[in-house]
Specification:
This protein is α+β, with helices and mostly antiparallel strands. Helices cover 21% and strands 26% of the residues. The chain contains one helix and three strands; from the N terminus they run E-E-E-H. The protein has a three-stranded antiparallel beta sheet.
């Protein structure tokens, strides 16, 4: 994932594609999302298809 922004007034999230893990061959690649203010904090993972659906829903909501 990219490094967090250096300015402190950012309420941003970072999104990156996380590749499938070798431990679970059937596991698909996922979208990894985290808050940019806490780079070592928790990461939300979602399958790419589900995340794409979520993004379409949020942008259609206006």
């Amino acid at each position: 994932m990219p490094e967090a922004p250096t300015h402190s007034n950012c309420d941003c999230v970072e999104i990156a594609e996380a590749p499938a893990t070798a431990a679970i061959a059937e596991a698909p690649a996922t979208a990894a999302v985290r808050g940019s203010r806490i780079p070592a904090g928790p990461i939300l993972r979602a399958e790419l298809a589900a995340f794409s659906t979520f993004l379409r829903w949020t942008t259609a909501a206006g």
